[in-house]
């Protein structure tokens, strides 16, 4: 017998010996030709059922059969393990594609049909939007996941799986897709801007989007169509109980699994050819390893599958019960024996439910009825969790007052055994396991929780909100310490639960508790890039500010101000933070005052008022020192250093930066260390030490990546791009600037995006392309004209001067250079020594192209322009 990793070659040899094509062999065993192709190439391992069928159809001799089956099931080939094999290209891996511990049974023909539509195979005309429809429990998600795994190599950018089951607002679909692609946030400026960002992200990419569970957000269908219309190389596979009803959509109705005719039961040896029976047997064996399909139970098994209408989820729930009942006993219960009346419930279901829901609800209800009273209580209460939960959360919420009557761990284990609860396995074995109800099962449990006449739902939702409030408050201090990365990740995993709690608190009018929950989350929303989402929650709380106690309101104001600042909405940020400072002064809340003053200083700093920013930092620093808050001391020292650095006083800035770095290293604050290293790098760059700066920025980059702060990753990439440009590595600089721009756009950082564009413009000018430089600068100025950063606008005018002079528009160049000088004088900002050569180059190009009088006249005219007049002048292509 050959080695196990040559099974594909063995299969191919036997197939050819029988003079069969892949399609002909697939037809004989009842699978798709693509399955045979992937088994032969080593991309897929044959299931037990498929291996047995192959042995039968290829006439494997009895003496060789055991070895043949062992080779088929022993493991994936080397080609699968190292990524070799027949591939279309170096495809990207699938993003967030669900991993299943059990094989997909009986869907080969459906996979082949769907694949043919998506990939233009055979007589099919390829479609770009294909929706899998069918009732709950039919297996749409599982089928889509398997199909995506099969075809991901056909798309150069791979597959992105987007779970929409927890999304209820159609306008959140686009941002959820963006998040699955790594674009955690879109701009704050509305759904149209988010849609445009997603189109830009996907334009030119050959990718398959798998959009799972869209039935509750059907109104988002036109948005999906708009994305596909703008991105011709992107395709979408959607699962939904209903079609999207948009132009270009092709619908595939997922059928039930294949059932035998129980009136004329087929021969025993062919029963496993029926996918419904094969699924039952596979899942029954998972529950009881000794289970086998026999002459004695074949009719009962086939009848049970028929009673389940071939619905995969219903069959799995029934099959899991073989641990407790024989197939005959299971059938008796389904038929209403023992006074249970379950068969009636299965046959009819609730009359006010859609027809397609009755069987599934009956199956879940039947499984529910088999639970003990204590297990039923736990099961129903679990429905309050969204997106999964940990065992401690289950214990705290579902047994908050110890009234369940059983140990939570035992209850969870029991529900896992009964297939009513799933375990989400973590890649890192040290991570705390998370548990979740399948969506359809959760919907059933929720309907039980919210049955009329019961106060259970409100009670459990409050316990849920109280638990996640306690979590948020306990985690908040950890977000600036050595364990910040782990706690940020924990909040990310429970983000759906946190939002569910906030939504319920706002809906029920518990505004004080909503404020207590949202305030501590602001740093998480900031660092992990949920800027728009966080602002929406905080602003929703502030809409009822009069109902919130002053101390809590001040905290929410401060958090909202920080998020607004990081989206470059400096006017709103200043308004929010100034109100927060006012309240905290009135309350004599020194810790709160220190934080709000520091954050207000950063906003004023961005607006170019350096003296006021320094005063705010100094007051904040004194409060932090008095409180012994070294984290705050380190942050303020870094901010003060930046004020001196911006004024060209590098020797005064360096001690502040160095002390800040030492404090943050001692505290184990990775984010803070990254910030301090970034500041030190800027100072070194301005002093001309590019290699020293690059070393610091490289370290900062790794730290920001560890804590998943995309905004600051984008910042450090842009700094490293400047180093590459100075060193003459234009290609490297161009790549770094574009990566920086992409990240900053994703999180809605307008200020940062504008900086990356300005760097790209300077690089284009350095390479002798003033036309591209002007186009990039116009985009830059358009972004920042409403932000209010006078220094940056002035620097932008200086860059315009160089690009205009290089393109033969010397008079316009001199005018804008004059405006830039006026702005620098007004805010006391000198030109940094490292930037002086570029500035002198720009001025010289304009001066050399004009006579002395004309240059002086244009320069003076620029100094007399208002800021708005200068912006309009720079952006007017006709001037």
Structure, explained:
The protein is mostly helical. Helix content is 63%, strand content 4%. The protein contains 44 helices and eight strands. The strands form two sheets. Strands 2-3-4-1-5 form a five-stranded parallel sheet, sandwiched between helices. The protein has a three-stranded antiparallel sheet with strand order 6-8-7. Helix 11 (221-230) links the parallel strand 3 and strand 4. Helix 36 packs parallel to helix 38 (750-766). It starts with 6 loop residues before the first helix and ends with a helix. The model is unreliable at 1-5, 75-91 and 337-358 (pLDDT under 50).
Helix and strand arrangement:
Blueprint (H helix, E strand, L loop, with lengths): L6 H11 L4 H8 L3 H9 L6 H10 L4 H12 L4 H5 L25 H11 L10 E5 L6 H12 L7 E5 L9 H8 L10 H12 L4 E6 L8 H10 L3 E6 L9 E5 L21 H13 L10 H10 L4 H8 L7 H8 L7 H7 L6 H16 L2 H10 L6 E2 H8 L9 H10 L4 E3 L9 E3 L2 H11 L6 H20 L8 H10 L1 H14 L2 H8 L3 H6 L3 H12 L7 H17 L3 H17 L3 H17 L3 H18 L2 H17 L3 H18 L2 H17 L3 H17 L3 H17 L3 H17 L3 H17 L3 H15 L5 H17 L3 H18 L8 H13 L3 H13 L2 H9 L4
Parallel strand pairs: 1-4, 1-5, 2-3, 3-4
Antiparallel strand pairs: 6-8, 7-8
Helix pairs in contact: 1-3, 2-3, 4-5, 7-8, 9-10, 10-11, 12-13, 12-14, 13-15, 14-17, 16-17, 18-20, 18-21, 19-22, 22-24, 22-25, 24-25, 25-27, 25-28, 27-28, 28-29, 28-30, 29-30, 30-31, 30-32, 31-32, 32-33, 32-34, 33-34, 34-35, 34-36, 35-36, 36-37, 36-38, 37-38, 38-39, 38-40, 39-40, 40-41, 40-42, ...
